[in-house]
């Protein structure tokens, strides 16, 4: 019987990660392991696009009025980077264990092109635009692929030799799974989902500069009204609110990890007014920049 939880715990034991709380790198770029001893309250986070697999414990993701819960054996498909709020819970006093996988654009386009040639899967490209975050209960095939990946990640050579093929297998299983259209939409260059994804990439690259909504819409060849509508459908936020949350998350990283002062961080992420930055920071994180 396949058991992702026991496989993840074996990975923790073999890699000496029993003291870790948070993300740790693996031997494979773009793949991170997560472990936490305790539950954590609802807090703002910035989730990057990819696949997040939970082997033990559970999480509740809040995105606007939209909530998603997933737990042991389930996975989350995130099509675009999303500022959201997350609660995490241990079960039976056992640590939360998870694995996150970035999806390389080249691999995604290759698999979508192959699947699009199959009539069975071409309909996935035609599903309506929706929020770029969905939870899935994994099937046996997906779980087996994850177990094989975790085994390979214990050895640097195996990770480098076998890892890319196992990532390919997992991405394929997500694509043909119940929420595969989230990733299919990213590969459709002229679709609204892919256009919004390109606009979000620009926001995450140039968040510290002056970004106008009309300019972002023009860059992806959309009218302002259509851009606003599609942006909200995908992110559950307006473009202005999304940009503000990205700036605040980046500022928090600068303060917490780089030791920057609040005023300095505010300027670095694009705020002209330190007082406005402090107000919005406290409202978003429920604590002042100094407490971070």
Q: Which features would summarize this protein structure in a list?
A:
21% strand; alpha+beta; 292 residues; Jelly Rolls; single chain; Arc Repressor Mutant, subunit A; 6-stranded antiparallel β-sheet
Question: Could you describe the 3D structure shown?
Answer:
The protein has 292 residues and is of the alpha+beta class. It is 48% helix and 21% strand. It has helices at residues 4-15, 105-116, 119-122, 140-152, 156-175, 181-187, 192-205, 213-219, 224-235, 239-257, 262-268, 274-285, and strands at residues 22-25, 31-36, 40-47, 50-56, 58-63, 66-71, 74-78, 82-89, 96-101, 133-137. The strands form two sheets. A six-stranded antiparallel beta sheet has the order 1-2-9-4-7-10. A four-stranded antiparallel beta sheet has the order 3-8-5-6. A hairpin with a 5-residue loop joins strand 1 and strand 2 (31-36). Helix 4 (140-152) packs antiparallel against helix 5 (156-175). It is globular, with a radius of gyration of 20 Å. It starts with a helix and ends in a 7-residue tail after the last helix.
CATH fold type of the largest domain: Jelly Rolls
Radius of gyration: 20 Å
Number of domains: 2
Average pLDDT confidence is 90
User: What structural class should be given to the helix and strand makeup?
Assistant: alpha+beta
CATH class of the largest domain: Mainly Beta
Order of helices and strands: HEEEEEEEEEHHEHHHHHHHHH
CATH superfamily of the largest domain: Jelly Rolls
Strand order of the largest sheet: 1-2-9-4-7-10
Strand content: 15-25%
Please work out how many helical segments DSSP would assign.
12
User: What are the low-pLDDT stretches, counting only 5+ consecutive residues below 50?
Assistant: none
């Amino acid at each position: 019987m396949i058991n992702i939880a026991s496989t993840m715990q074996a990975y923790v034991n073999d890699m000496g990660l029993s003291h870790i709380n948070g993300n740790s790198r693996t031997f494979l770029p773009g793949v991170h392991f997560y472990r936490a001893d305790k539950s954590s309250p609802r807090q703002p986070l910035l989730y990057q696009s990819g696949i997040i697999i939970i082997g033990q414990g559970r999480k509740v993701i809040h995105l606007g009025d939209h909530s998603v819960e997933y737990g042991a054996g389930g996975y989350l498909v995130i099509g675009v980077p999303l500022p959201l709020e997350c609660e995490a819970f241990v079960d039976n006093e056992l640590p939360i264990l998870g694995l996150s996988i970035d999806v390389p654009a080249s691999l995604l386009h290759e698999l979508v092109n192959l699947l699009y040639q199959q009539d069975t899967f071409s309909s996935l490209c035609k599903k309506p635009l929706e929020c770029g975050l969905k939870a899935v209960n994994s099937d046996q095939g997906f779980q087996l692929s994850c177990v094989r990946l975790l085994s390979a990640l214990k050895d640097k050579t195996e990770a480098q030799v076998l890892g890319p093929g196992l990532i390919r297998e997992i991405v394929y299983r997500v694509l043909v799974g119940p929420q595969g259209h989230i990733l299919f939409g990213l590969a459709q260059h002229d679709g609204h989902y892919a256009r919004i994804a390109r606009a979000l990439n620009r926001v995450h690259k140039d968040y510290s500069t002056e970004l106008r909504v009309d300019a972002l819409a023009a860059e992806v060849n959309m009218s302002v009204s259509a851009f606003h509508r599609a942006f909200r459908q995908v992110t559950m936020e307006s473009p202005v609110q999304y940009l503000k949350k990205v700036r605040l998350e980046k500022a928090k990283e600068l303060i917490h990890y780089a030791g920057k002062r609040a005023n300095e961080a505010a300027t670095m992420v694009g705020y002209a007014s330190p007082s406005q930055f402090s107000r919005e920071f406290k409202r978003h994180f429920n604590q002042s920049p100094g407490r971070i």
